[in-house]
């Protein structure tokens, strides 16, 4: 079989060449147009038109029938070929006339219209004589019908301008025939309107000076298609009356073995050289030889220069053409797949170089961001790649960090799509939650775009995972270091911002741990300050002990003296407290007796002895503890106790002022509300006033006792504080 295919005399070889000739002619005719006609002509002449003239005529007739708008181009092509191969033009005309007659007999309007139009353009190109145009027009108008008149008018739009210049009497005959049809009413109303419009155009063209029918809508030969000189053209005399003797030669379209195949091929090669010109071929061969010599010399020079480096030169493509083509292939594969499984299967077949996995991740994210709304197709595709290879998972994690860093460049719609895309990957554990470490949720480190991204991301996570599962994941101790920037604890301001942010997006339950930490923060800070002060005091006490080790005798004597003085101070303070309590009790008893004698309904205030006794007991215990504790601790405690006592005294003072104000307001209110005689009202007012005075005296006594007790406690330590003393804390008893 292969041997026969290589043998030029065999039928198999000739069949292969025949099929190649048919395909080549069909391809050239299908691609011809008004712009590339001059370039296609040499290629057509390069094929064996002597052997394939039947194939050429059949192909061009089919192409014209399929695309009637290209009829002028096909006519110009036939006109050029007719100058070198007249038998091709004659065969084409015979086939067209026979086809027109068959279609006219069958009342096949589309074929008649297309064939008549083709014949008209061949008449314009002078391939056919003008008499065939008149014969066709007379045949169509002999028995006028709606279709025949319409075909005749379309035919005259093609050849009318040419016939007016070549054969004016014949043109007037056709015009008179149309007037007769219009006058006798032999056609329908629509056809009469078409004829009337046609005649008006002709009349207008005749009345205007230097006006031609082609300027009024009639077709002629364009300048781009006027390729043949009139003296070079061969015009064929054809007629409808003689068409019965025409032979379409259908056998030329069928393969037949040629016994003289080689001789015919050689003869056509000579014709082709004559048509295309031997000089041009020689020049082209000379140019190609010169170019090849120059290239060979350049290669020799380059080879000589590159010989020391091994004889090979590596070319680096800085235009990234291969990378662009790879991205285009990935994009088309993603967008043309029906589902994510098909897309993943096709993408895995693409040959990727080392480190090019990131291109797939980038293109998937880019395609997802371009959608009008988020499509789960991209999330499932990315999930499949992440679970398939660890390299793709690392690529998508890097893309998350890069996208968050450049999130301010995205539009809102793209931003939402990307956030939901990564939310799907995190919810399915396709990528590691370590990427959340790149999100720092503070007012200073976020923008409006990043806050929208975080909002959409966590809302999608809550929707996919559930709020409880998401909270468990965020509270996992093993993952706490990844979420430190999401729930910052470095300052109360950042903690409040994080809490408020998640609360505003409806995910406040994720911040329960941060809320507890914020509530316990004052206690934690106080404990830290106490620990720091205790450590500083311990260091100071150890320094004092080491410095006083050499003077132990003097320290012991000074301690004994201080103990004696403290005991004497205690006894004096006790005596003072007892005297104060006695005086306060006597004053309270006097007040109570006065109140009971004036008004039996008033109640006596509680005695102040219990408070004084409690204060005295508290001071005695405090003094005992102060003697037992070291000096450093006593200094520390005395400072804190003094601050607490100051707070208590201020609170007592405020409460006393409130009671005084309330006591002054209540008698007036009662006086206004009560109704009765003037004596009864005055008696009630005096009773209220006495009650207010008694309570004021009692408060003064209690305050005096507490101040005396506090002064005893303040000075019982034996060592005065170095800091300033408030006016309320000054010692007033001498």
From TrEMBL:
Residues 277-301, 552-573, 591-604 have a biased composition (Acidic residues). Residues 325-441 form the MI domain. Keywords: mRNA processing, mRNA splicing, Nucleus. One of its GO terms (molecular function) is RNA binding. One of its GO terms (cellular component) is catalytic step 2 spliceosome. One of its GO terms (biological process) is mRNA splicing, via spliceosome. PROSITE patterns: MI. Residues 574-590 have a biased composition (Low complexity). Belongs to the CWC22 family. This is MIF4G-domain-containing protein. It comes from Coccomyxa subellipsoidea (strain C-169).
């Amino acid at each position: 079989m292969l041997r026969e295919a290589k043998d030029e005399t065999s039928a198999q070889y000739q069949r292969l060449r025949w099929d190649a000739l048919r395909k080549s002619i069909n391809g050239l005719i299908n691609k011809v147009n008004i712009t590339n006609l001059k370039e296609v002509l040499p290629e057509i002449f390069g094929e064996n038109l002597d052997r394939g003239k039947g194939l050429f005529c059949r192909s061009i007739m089919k192409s014209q029938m399929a695309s009637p708008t290209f009829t002028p181009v096909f006519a110009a092509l036939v006109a050029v070929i007719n100058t070198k191969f007249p038998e091709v033009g004659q065969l084409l005309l015979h086939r067209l006339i026979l086809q027109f007659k068959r279609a006219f007999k069958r009342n096949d309007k589309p074929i008649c219209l297309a064939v008549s139009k083709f014949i008209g353009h061949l008449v314009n190109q002078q391939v056919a004589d003008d008499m065939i145009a008149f014969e066709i027009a007379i045949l169509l108008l002999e028995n006028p019908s709606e279709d025949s008149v319409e075909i005749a008018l379309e035919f005259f739009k093609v050849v009318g301008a040419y016939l007016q210049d070549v054969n004016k009497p014949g043109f007037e005959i056709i015009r008179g025939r149309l007037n007769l049809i219009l006058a006798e009413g032999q056609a329908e109303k629509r056809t009469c309107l078409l004829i009337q419009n046609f005649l008006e155009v002709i009349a207008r063209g005749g009345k205007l000076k230097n006006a031609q029918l082609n300027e009024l809508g009639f077709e002629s030969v364009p300048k781009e298609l006027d390729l043949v000189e009139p003296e070079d053209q061969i015009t064929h005399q054809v007629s409808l009356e003689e068409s019965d003797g025409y032979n379409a030669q259908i056998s030329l379209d069928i393969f037949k073995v040629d016994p003289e195949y080689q001789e015919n091929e050689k003869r056509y090669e000579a014709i082709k050289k004559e048509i295309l010109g031997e000089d041009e071929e020689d020049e082209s061969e000379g140019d190609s030889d010169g170019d090849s010599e120059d290239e060979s010399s350049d290669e020799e020079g380059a080879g000589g220069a590159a010989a020391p480096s091994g004889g090979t030169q590596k070319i680096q493509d800085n235009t990234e053409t291969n990378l662009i083509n790879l991205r285009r292939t990935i994009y088309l594969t993603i967008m043309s797949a029906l589902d994510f499984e098909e897309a993943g299967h096709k993408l895995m077949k693409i040959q990727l170089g080392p480190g090019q996995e990131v291109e797939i991740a980038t293109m998937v994210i880019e395609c997802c961001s371009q959608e009008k709304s988020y499509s789960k197709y991209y999330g499932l595709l990315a999930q499949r790649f992440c679970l398939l290879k660890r390299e793709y998972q690392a690529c998508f994690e890097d893309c998350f960090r890069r996208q968050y860093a450049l999130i301010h460049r995205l539009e809102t719609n793209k931003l939402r799509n990307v956030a939901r895309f990564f939310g799907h990957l995190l919810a399915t554990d396709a990528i590691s939650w370590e990427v959340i470490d790149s999100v720092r949720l503070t007012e200073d480190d976020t923008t409006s775009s990043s806050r929208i991204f975080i909002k959409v991301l966590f809302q999608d996570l809550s929707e996919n995972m559930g709020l409880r599962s998401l909270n468990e994941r965020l509270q996992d101790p093993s993952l706490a270091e990844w979420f430190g920037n999401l729930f910052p604890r470095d300052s109360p301001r950042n903690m409040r911002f994080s809490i408020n942010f998640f609360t505003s997006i409806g995910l406040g339950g994720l911040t329960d741990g941060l809320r507890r930490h914020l509530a316990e923060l004052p206690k934690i800070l106080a404990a830290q300050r106490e620990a720091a002060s205790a450590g500083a005091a311990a260091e100071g006490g150890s320094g004092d002990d080491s410095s006083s080790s050499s003077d132990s005798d003097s320290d012991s004597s000074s301690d004994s003296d201080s103990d004696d003085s403290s005991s004497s101070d205690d006894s004096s303070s006790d005596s003072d407290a007892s005297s104060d309590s006695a005086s306060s009790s006597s004053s309270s008893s006097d007040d109570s007796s006065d109140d009971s004698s004036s008004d039996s309904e008033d109640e006596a205030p509680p005695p102040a002895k219990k408070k004084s006794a409690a204060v005295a007991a508290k001071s005695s215990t405090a003094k005992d503890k102060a003697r037992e504790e070291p000096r450093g601790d006593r200094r520390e405690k005395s400072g804190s106790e003094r601050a607490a006592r100051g707070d208590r005294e201020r609170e007592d003072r405020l409460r006393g002022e409130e009671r005084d104000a309330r006591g002054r307001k209540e008698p007036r209110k009662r006086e206004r509300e009560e109704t009765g005689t003037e004596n009864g009202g005055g008696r009630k007012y005096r009773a209220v006033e006495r009650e207010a005075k008694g309570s004021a005296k009692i408060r003064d006594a209690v305050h005096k006792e507490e101040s005396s007790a506090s002064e005893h406690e303040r000075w019982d330590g034996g060592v005065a504080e170095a800091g300033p003393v408030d006016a309320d804390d000054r010692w007033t008893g001498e």
